[in-house]
Amino acid sequence: MESRSNISSLASLTVASMGNSCGIDFSQDGIFLPVLHGTFFIIGVPLNLTALFGLFRLIKSENVLPVYVINLLISDLIQLLTLPFWMDYYANGHYWRFGPQTCQIIGMLFYSSIYAGIFFMCIIALERHLAIARPLSFKHLGSLKFACWLVLAVWTLLILAQITAVNKLFPKGQNFTLCIEKYPSEGSFITYRLITLLLSFIIPLSFIVGLQRQTVHSLMAIKSLSFEEKRSIRGLLTLLVITFVTVFGPYHFIGCVKYIGLLMHGSTCVWERAVFVPYQMGRGFLSLNSLLDPVFYIFLRKDFRAAARDYLPCLGRIRIGSAQTDGPTNTTEEHD
């Protein structure tokens, strides 16, 4: 009986090593990531649910910004709901025990939610720019119907892209206990990751920063807004950039270093072991977005704060000095 148990344990180790020929020590993140993900999950789920509950009433009017904010929070919530699976995975030394199909589903949901969050941050920056700098153009794009179709298109595109990528790069027929990772990374996966790093960070960051500068420039020419209103709008756009860089910057920077290094380094396994811990730390902090987004969009904006106080009266006691951040249009001032 003991012999059979030893054979079974040896077989499990052999299967696990098939995706880890570099001999990565998976115990290095076995405490840090489960604790970090557990903290994000415990705080983030009620926070996002509360924010969503307060924001849904705003979409009853022709008010498109809440539609994008709600979908940003939905992407955060989806990401949060995958964290218990990753907590179990990392706590057990990167051993996935829920089956390959579940691994594909959870991996697809996790990365789709990250990319959706990036897309919706870009859309929010664009919406603010159009409302302030191009109000005439905004009238044609500011309808609730257009916003709903745009949201549907974003989710459909991202989910289909992730399903295709996961099926292509990590077929469920592979007998691995690792989930959405392999050491050393193969050439096709390195190319895929470098492309996604470009599309999900460098281009969106340039887009958001460019819109922020143009919007602030247009804002200065508007005489009908007070100094406090202009300062609040600038604050919104600046915080959007800071949040984007803080949450996504470390992961994407370390990712670029990792995958470019794999193309240039003579020994891929040596490089994989060297960047393993920093890369995992950057990946873990991606879920920080789920804590920042609700606070950022509820408390920075006057109309969101008012909606939140309707459901949580205790929030009315919190003094927030920032003024109303809406542009010259009425896109965020309609209430029920």
Automatic annotation (TrEMBL):
Parts of the chain that traverse the membrane: 31-56, 68-86, 106-126, 146-170, 190-211, 232-254
Primary localization class, coarse: membrane
Residue stretches making up the G-protein coupled receptors family 1 profile domain: 47-297
GO MF, one example: G protein-coupled receptor activity
Membrane-topology descriptor: Multi-pass membrane protein
Family: Belongs to the G-protein coupled receptor 1 family.
Endpoints of the signal sequence: none
Cellular localization per UniProt: Cell membrane
Name of the molecule in the record: P2Y purinoceptor 4
Species: Triplophysa tibetana
InterPro entries: GPCR_Rhodpsn, GPCR_Rhodpsn_7TM
Highest taxon of the lineage: Eukaryota
Keywords: Cell membrane, Disulfide bond, G-protein coupled receptor, Glycoprotein, Membrane, Receptor, Transducer, Transmembrane, Transmembrane helix
GO cellular component annotations of the record: plasma membrane
Gene3D superfamilies membership: Rhodopsin 7-helix transmembrane proteins
